[in-house]
Every structure is written in structure tokens, then in C-alpha cells.
Specification:
The protein is mostly helical and 232 residues long. It has helices at 14-39, 45-91, 93-106, 111-133, 145-169, 175-198, 202-226. It has a domain at 13-69 and 145-225. The protein has 7 helices and no strands.
Length: 232
């Protein structure tokens, strides 16, 4: 008996991984940027920490709520399309069968084979076949609002807490530079972690996330220096 090889795929992680990476990236970047901007205009640790904590809490709640609303909208669209497709299968089954066969034919099957495949899949589960091959809706990539919201909120909190810890211990006079350095390290680690979790090459992910992070923090620091007003 031949040994069966199980292929490893990562597409089933796309929903929570996207939300998690986005949340952690925003948590690190927005909290560090706030702290850097405030540190450029303030000389007291209390002001810096207050701004950091406020940004952390507000950002986590905003990320979770925003992710839930946006993914829920996607779910609503999917449900609406499925309901419409279900009704079409009742009203015009022959046209829907030919439509499914045409899809398989365009993918490379002969006309006869495409029609036979469409017939068999329709007999097995017509709605599932149309959802997958006509609408592109699959259980592996199905929108899950609560999962996305939880992943975003928790990852933002974890990511945003890192710059706050740095703000607690870093010297005030060099706060901006230390925050910047550690934020780049945190972002690089996040890029490597997300790439490995998603089965991608880490170098490209690290460069992408650190490049945009550097730009965002640099602009924030510049604005802080531009309005060099103490908020203490």
C-alpha cells in the first residue's frame, strides 16, 4: 500500500491571518507613531504614556468594530447571492445547468465532459456547485465576522502594548529614536511571523511592512516637531 502524502495548504488561514496581521501591524504602528509624535512635543513621561494608552484602547476597539462591520457586509452579500442563486435553480434549472457547464468548458474541459460534470455536481449539490464555481464562495474562505473582529482586536492590543512597554522604560530624551528602533524590530518580527504562518517568503513581507512603517512614523515625528508645543 502506497504512502499517502497530505498536501499542506494555507488558504484556510486567510481570514483570521489577514485580520490578525492587520491588527498587530496597526497596533504597533499607530501606537508607536502616537508616542513618537507626542514625545517630539512633550518632555513628560505621563503625557506620553497617557497618549499611548488612549491610542491603544481606542485603536483596539475601533479595529474590532470596523472589522466586524466590514466582514459582516461581505457576509450579507454572500447570503444575498446564495439566496438569489437558490431561487434561480428552482425557477430555471436547465439554464443554470448550462451555465455551470459553460464555466467548466472555459476552464479547459470538452463540451461533453463539462456538461457531464455539471450534471453530476448538480445532482450531488447544485447550490454548493454554483456557490463555489460561479460565485467563488467556498467554506475555506467564507467570511466570519466574529472571528475577524476578535483576531483584529486582540492582535491590535498585543501589538500596541509593545510600544507602551518601551515608553515605560526608555529615557525621555531619546524616546523618539528608541521607539522608532523597537517599532521597526517589532514590525520585522511581525512580517516574518505572518509570512511563515501563511507559507510565504519572509524577506518580502519584512521589507514591505518595515518600509511603510518607517514612512508612517517618520511623518508623525515630523508633525510632532513641526508643532513643537508642550502638552504637559
Amino acid at each position: 500500500m502506497e504512502n499517502q502524502v497530505t498536501e499542506k495548504h494555507y488558504i484556510n488561514r486567510s481570514g483570521w491571518l489577514r485580520a490578525g496581521v492587520l491588527g498587530a501591524n496597526d497596533g504597533i504602528l499607530s501606537t508607536a507613531s502616537i508616542i513618537i509624535g507626542v514625545a517630539a512635543a512633550s518632555s513628560t513621561r505621563e503625557s506620553i504614556l497617557l497618549a499611548g494608552f488612549a491610542g491603544l484602547v481606542a485603536g483596539a476597539l475601533s479595529m474590532a468594530a470596523g472589522e466586524y462591520v466590514s466582514v459582516s457586509s461581505q457576509t450579507d452579500i454572500e447570503k444575498s447571492d446564495l439566496a438569489r442563486e437558490k431561487q434561480e435553480l428552482i425557477d430555471m434549472p436547465k439554464q443554470e445547468l448550462l451555465e455551470l457547464a459553460k464555466i467548466y468548458e472555459e476552464r479547459g474541459l470538452t463540451k461533453e465532459t463539462a456538461l457531464e460534470v455539471a450534471k453530476q455536481l448538480t445532482a450531488h449539490n447544485a447550490l454548493e456547485a454554483h456557490a463555489r464555481d460561479e460565485l467563488g464562495i467556498h467554506e475555506l474562505t467564507e467570511a466570519r465576522p466574529l472571528q475577524a473582529a476578535l483576531s483584529s482586536g486582540v492582535s491590535f492590543t498585543v501589538g500596541g502594548f509593545l510600544p507602551v512597554i518601551v515608553a515605560l522604560v526608555a529615557p525621555i530624551e531619546s524616546m523618539e529614536y528608541i521607539q522608532y528602533a523597537f517599532a521597526i524590530i517589532f514590525l520585522a518580527f511581525l512580517g516574518m511571523l505572518s509570512a511563515r504562518t501563511g507559507g510565504a517568503r519572509p524577506i518580502k513581507a519584512i521589507l514591505r511592512i518595515t518600509l511603510w512603517g518607517t514612512l508612517a512614523m517618520g511623518i508623525t515625528a515630523f508633525i510632532g516637531h513641526l508643532f513643537n508645543v508642550s502638552i504637559a
